[in-house]
Amino acid sequence: MNNYDTRQIEEICKNTWEPLYRFIYYKVQNREEAEDITQETYVKSLSYSKLKDIAPDRYIAFFKTVALNIIRDRWRKSKKGLNNVDIEAINPIEIAVDDTTEIANQQLFIRNTLKKLSDDQREVIELRILKGYSVSETAKIMGKSDGNIRVLQYRALKKLADIMDKYKE
């Protein structure tokens, strides 16, 4: 693959897979599809002839761009397929949506739980976990050091776990 040895490919993937997967998952909201797109992103990216010209600190941005293009292509293909749907063949019971009350309750619980965090903790959770930014990207956005971001994230997740444990009781 483009003059990379196995060790180099493993190193690139090890350093980028987590933020890339989270970014993709945030976009598609489906674990299997996110895994497929992540894998496809690496296949396309690592075979790109000019990848060696990209600085290693810019890999994640490049991978996210490739992933967005893959997501857009899949979306376009699925939109084209919608024209061939036979409305009469759809079983309404099979496609019924979950109880909206339960979904609304879950969203309310999450919002109320996040409100119990400090502003910095809430922001670090949003940037790192929901939006998939790396520690260094989050640090730049928040104007803090990488170490500070790691500590904030750890404390925020611990506090969320404690709040959820109390809820279970």
Number of strands: 0
Helix and strand pattern: HHHHHHH
> What kind of sheet is the major sheet?
none
**CATH topology assignment of the largest domain:** Rna Polymerase Sigma Factor, Chain: A
Total of helices: 7
The value of Rg in angstroms is 20 Å
* Contiguous uncertain segments of 5+ residues: none
Helix residue percentage: over 70%
CATH class of the largest domain: Mainly Alpha
Strand content: under 5%
Description:
The chain is mostly helical and 169 residues long. The chain has 2 domains: 79 residues, Rna Polymerase Sigma Factor, Chain: A (Orthogonal Bundle); 72 residues, Arc Repressor Mutant, subunit A (Orthogonal Bundle), CATH 1.10.10. It is built from 7 helices and no strands. The longest helix has 23 residues. The radius of gyration is 20 Å and the shape is globular. The N and C termini lie far apart (53 Å). The model has no long low-confidence stretch (mean pLDDT 80).
Helices and strands in order:
Layout: H1 6-28, H2 31-46, H3 59-81, H4 100-115, H5 119-130, H6 135-142, H7 146-168
Helix pairs in contact: 1-2, 1-3, 2-3, 5-7, 6-7
Please provide a brief summary of the model.
By secondary structure, this protein is mostly helical. It has helices at 6-28, 31-46, 59-81, 100-115, 119-130, 135-142, 146-168. α1 packs across α2, α2 packs across α3 (59-81) and α6 crosses α7.
